[in-house]
Amino acid sequence: MSRSLTLRRALAVLPVLAAALVAPGPASPAVASAPETTATAPAADGPLAAKPYMGWSSWSMQSSNHPGLNPKGMGSWLTEANLLKQADAVASRLKASGYTYVNMDAGWWMNWDWVPDFDTNGRPKTNPERFPHGIEHVADQIHRKGLKSGIYLPVGLEKVNYDKGDFPIAGAPACSTHDIVHDDLRTTNGWDSSYKLDFAKPCAQKYVDSIATMFAGWGIDFFKLDGVGPGSGRAGADYDNRDEVAAYRKALDATGRKIHFEVSWSLDIAAIDTWKAHTNGWRIDTDVECYCDTLVTWENSVDNRWADLPQWVRHAGPGGWNDLDSLDVGNGRMDGITPDERRSYMTLWSIAAAPLYTGDDVTKLDELGEQLLTNPEVLAVNQQGRPAKPVEEGVDQQTWWVENTDGSFTVALFNLASTPKAVQGRWSDLGLSGAGRVRDLWARKDIGTFGGGYGAVLPPHGSRLFKVTPAQRSGGIEAESGRIGGRAAVRDCAGCSGGRKVGDLYQGGSVEFRDVRVPRAGTYRLAASYLSGDPRWFGVTVNDAPAVWAEFPATADWNTAAAHELVVNLKAGTNTVVFDSGAGYAPDLDRIDISPV
Are 464 and 456 in contact (CB under 8 A)? Predict the structure, then answer.
């Protein structure tokens, strides 16, 4: 209940192309077999949290007093029958758009009076009235629909578990549940409902291992640990659960099953290194639910995110994401917010690269709800995994922006005031000069080309969402205007800037840009627009520095350009930058763009 991988370390960071900043890369890339090859299909199940996850969660309906949702009291909505109905609806209505997780929240081991039960090894025991066929059966049914199954626990050892007796820990015959907590029975978590685990005692890890093993055996794909500190409204050593978070990551990995690990709620940003090292997502704020007759209200607490998110933006990326909580925009009557508020809610979650998991009754999505949750252009902004940031914080009229992987920009305008207001997006705030082509992503139509910026008068709590494509990038140079060497040749390219690219960059092919100008010496971002059917390498030389080899991931195909960013040191005035294939095979090159870091 929310009151409510180390993979990140394995992912490459932006290479810094200057001898003083990084060591040189490999002497030569691996040689490909041909200049152009078909892209290798990704694995059916890639790295954990490579993109923000998408799915559905039960807590919004469990926590609401909306008529008919919880007839047997708080949280009673959560049953096997209700969960599988939602799984059916997710599969039929949302799966095609990328929604795959079906996550049960608090209560699966509770009776209708919210009293927990435990098995003979002290682990939470599935309540037979709620789940008569057990969690493994439910997970199997979810998997049969091509979806993934999620589960939940609070942090610590629940008090009633300890008080019921001393249970042997599964897989650790020398350990029991009374061996895993502090001798003074100090309490922990956001509700003080558990005793704090003592990881100075080896049996504590064994207990966590036993729970992870049980979940993996049930076929669980997602685990949310709730009430975690530092954070969750508590302070002090008794509420610091970083050791337990690390223990669960170790235990989940040891099962051999890939299980997405999320921590909640309202985590302390001062502990971000722990959240990033051991989890795949972290809640940054209090519950979005209002605990009232609807699922949410604007003031309690959807609107908190605009104020609280900016400090977290830089921490999100592949392997771990800023979790803004459930996305309840699917049914206006049940959600409790206006159509404009619903659109702004979805817009912020999307541009923030936050996990998109709705808490709505998916069997009852209205027309607007289905449009909001399935717009492919908006979902693509989210799934590129680049979180937007505001031009200015703490004001009612806000502009958020992010540079996209293709070199365009996503721009969101928000009016957080209670009266209509004009909001202006200025190209200079994005580092652009000249005109920009504007596309309305919600309407999925081009608006036109505008110089300097684009604005609109927005209703209370309203928003607009655009893609802005610079008509001319400041500092941009087309590859075909460079000095072409070796086998390289200019080719037509419908998906490229200017309609052309430089191809055949293999076995000595190169492009030399001799007139890369900047006003002052320093560090700059070099965005290389390129095309490649498979991962390939460029050796990049800046002025007289040694060549540095940088890997460029595959793009969609040989006709679809994407941008790959490098960081370079440039001198004031004119610089020379060379892209060289070496003895291997490099991508096709469209253009380069230079901007300040």
Answer: yes
Average pLDDT of the chain is 90
pLDDT at 154 over 90: yes
Domains of the chain from N-terminus onward = 14-41+475-596 (2.60.120.260), 54-161+205-386 (3.20.20.70), 390-470 (2.60.40.1180)
Contact 548, 22 (CB under 8 A): yes
In Å, the largest CA–CA distance within the chain is 78
Element housing 88 (H / E): helix 80-89
Structure tokens that stand for 222 in this block: 């997602």
d(CA 353, CA 124): 33
- pLDDT surpasses 50 at 106: yes
Question: Which residues are within 8 A (CB) of 186 and not within 5 positions of it... i.e. 6 or more apart?
Answer: 195, 196, 238
Angle among Cα 266, 385, 371 to the nearest 5 degrees reads 85
CA distance 527 to 594: 6
Task: Tell me what pLDDT residue 369 has.
Answer: 98
Does residue 458 surpass a pLDDT of 90? yes
Comparing CA positions, the residue from 299, 291, 214 lying closest to residue 251 is: 214
- d(CA 213, CA 252) in angstroms, rounded, equals 8
- Nearest residue to 528 via CA among 406, 428, 433, 430: 406
Residue 541 tokens, joined? 């030389």
Compute the distance between CA of residue 352 and CA of residue 386 in angstroms, rounded to an integer. 7
CA distances to 29, 36, 491, 501, 504 from 507, in Å = 11, 13, 18, 18, 9
Q: Which two tokens stand for residue 171?
A: 């897989």
Nearest partner of 503 among 588, 590, 591, 592, judged by Cα? 588
Which of 14-23, 153-162, 228-237, 396-405 has the least mean pLDDT? 14-23
Helix axes 242-254, 202-218, angle to 10 degrees: 50
Calculate helix-pair angle for 134-144, 202-218, nearest 10 degrees.
50
| Contact (Cβ atoms closer than 8 angstroms) between residue 360 and residue 459 | no
Q: Nearest Cα to 346, choosing from 317, 379, 307?
A: 379
CA distances to 287, 352, 464, 491 from 266, rounded to whole Å, are: 8, 17, 28, 52
Span 230-243, mean pLDDT?
Answer: 97
Question: Is 571 in a helix, a strand, or coil?
Answer: coil
- What DSSP character marks residue 209? H
d(CA 291, CA 33): 60
Alpha helices in 259-325 (DSSP H): 272-278, 304-308
Q: d(Cα 84, Cα 143) in Å, to the nearest integer?
A: 11
Do you know the residue count of the chain? Answer: 597
The pTM for the full model equals 0.76
